Each structure stands twice: as structure tokens, then as C-alpha cells.
Amino acid sequence: MTRPSLRVGIFGTGSIAERAMVEPSALVDSVQVIAVGSRDPERARAFADRFGIQAAGDYASVMADPDVDLVYVALPPTVHAQWAVAALEAGKHVLCEKPLSANGTDAKAIADAASANGRSAFVGFHYRLHPFTRRLLDVIRSGQFGVIQDVEIDFSIPHFVVKPGNIRLNGALGGGAVMDVGCYAIDLLRAAWGEATVESSTSKLYDDDPRVDMETDFVLAFTSGIKARVRASFLGDDKGRMSLDIVGSKASLHATSVIVPQWGATLRVTAGDTVLIDEKATEGESSYVAQLEHLVEVLRAGAPTPLGAADATATMALVDDVYRASGLQPR
């Protein structure tokens, strides 16, 4: 049997580890999950037995395993820096579930540790590797919109999804709407138009933990003069929204499901009554599979990546600024 080119150890046994790593790795011949660690080794063993993973224990055992090439950190963002830095210092590459960390300072610590140890650190913005997202960004950068007059992103999770007890409502673990979905918006907008500053931000807070924003509306101002209005929310209607709208002097764009393209994302560009582009992503085409295939190529051949920790540090610095502009402390 040919040895997989990327052997993965997982920190954490939550559902995201199954969805983002175990399931897609089964579809990528060059990737194999070979170890899992948890604060509770018994939980790690139960997870390993469930999915046929050979090694299980605590985090230290995963880092000490000489066969592990990359550690996937599927833990709350407030401890990403602690364990990502430890794994990098142990000689492993690292993929952190999004966001990269709890704040810009911690993100920089991860990027610096990767550089100091000659390893690579990535953030799990898997949507960036989906063909739909690549196409969307090409269209945005095409210049066909003329002078861009308005940009709006609405990432609103249906109101019944994030309920008491959900980790996303725990301020001590880095909860909040900007941390959960707003970071996607910032990443996408930076990919389209570069660096920005926060012009304004207002938040609705969680009654039981006022560190947590249930909904934040903010405006990013780009050096080109473009301004983007963003809503990150846990208070969406029954259907929720993951939409991007751009209005230009020559054409306009409307895109849906932009952070989960495999749910049937759509891209429509119009100029008056003329439809210039009307496309739909292939449903079920997993961005998690694309992410793993991409990481193999990056680590094998040094291919460029949109998932690098250094770039994600700038995204986290903007997340911090959004919270400050709302009168909140960064995580």
C-alpha cells in the first residue's frame, strides 16, 4: 500500500473534526488521519474507534507521533495559539479551524512560530478553494462593474440555530457572530480588494454573556475608495442569508451561499435588463475535499495558498478592530 503523502493528527473530537477532516480525508487518497488527541484520552479513543483511526491519546501523544505530518486544531479559537504553537515547535505543520485564533495577537504568534520552525500554518477557510469561490473572485476582479458604488454582505444564520449551550455563545471560548461568520466576510472582501479599515460598527449583545455579539453591522473602507457594509448575525430569519451584492456603474452582482458553495451557490451579473452571467455551483462538490487536496499540493510543491497564517493574521486584526469599534474587547 502506498504511503499517504499527508498524515494527519487531530486535536479535538467535536463534530467539526468529523465533518472537516475525517469525512473528506476518506475521499482523498493522499491524505490519511492516523491519530486523534483530546483532553480526555477516553474520548479520543472512542472517536478513534468510531472512525478507524489507529492512534488515540492526549494532545502530547499526537505531537510526539513521528508519523504525523500535520495537526488539525479543531478546538475553540481561544486555545488555537497555545496548541498550534506547541505543534509547530514539535515539527508539525498545522491547520487551524477558522478563525485562525482568538485575536490578531494570537494569530501573529502562530504565524511567527511557523516561520521560526520552518513549518507551515494554515487557516480552514475551505470555501476559498471551491471552484465557485475562485470564479466569484475572478468576476469581482474583472473590472466589468465599472465604478463600484455599493457592496453588501449579509451572513445571517437562522435564529433557531445558535441556542443556549452552543459554543458560539460562550465569550470565554471566543464566541460571537463576527468570530463565527464575520471573519468569512472580512476574508472574502480582503481577497477581492485588499486591505481595509473599520469605518463603523454596532453590535447587539447576548443577554446571558455581553461579551458575545449576536449581530454586528460594520463598514469596511478600502484604500481604493470602495466601502462594504457587512452583517454578521445569529438572528437571521428562518432561511438565513449568505449573500454578496455589488452595485457598479456598469453592472451589478448578486451571489448566494458564498461561504458554503456546495449548498448550491449562485452567481448572477446583470447590466440593466441584460443578464451577463447566470451560474450555479455544483451541489455536493465539497470545499473540504478541495482544501485537503490543496494542502497536499502546497506542502509537496510549495504552491501558493490563500490559507496562510500570515495573511489570516491581517484578517484577525480587522476582526479585533470591528469589536473595538462596537465598544467590545477583542477576544
List the topology elements.
Elements: E1 6-11, H1 15-25, E2 31-37, H2 41-51, E3 55-57, H3 59-64, E4 70-73, H4 80-89, E5 93-96, H5 104-116, E6 121-123, H6 131-140, E7 148-158, H7 177-193, E8 196-206, E9 209-222, E10 227-236, E11 241-248, E12 252-256, E13 266-271, E14 274-280, H8 287-301, H9 309-325
Parallel strand pairs: 1-2, 1-4, 2-3, 4-5, 5-6, 7-10
Antiparallel strand pairs: 7-11, 8-9, 9-10, 11-12, 12-13, 13-14
Helix pairs in contact: 4-5, 5-9, 7-9
| Cα-to-Cα separation, first versus last residue | 45 Å
State the major sheet: 8 strands, mixed
- Computed structural class: alpha/beta
Strand order of the largest sheet: 8-9-10-7-11-12-13-14
Number of distinct beta strands = 14
Salient structural properties:
single chain, 331 residues, alpha/beta, eight-stranded mixed β-sheet, globular
Characterise the protein shown here.
The chain is an alpha/beta fold and 331 residues long. Helices cover 33% and strands 30% of the residues. The protein has 9 helices and 14 strands. The strands form 2 sheets. The protein has an 8-stranded mixed β-sheet. The chain has a 6-stranded parallel β-sheet with strand order 3-2-1-4-5-6, with helices on both faces. Helix 4 runs parallel beside helix 5 (104-116), helix 5 runs antiparallel to helix 9 and helix 7 crosses helix 9.
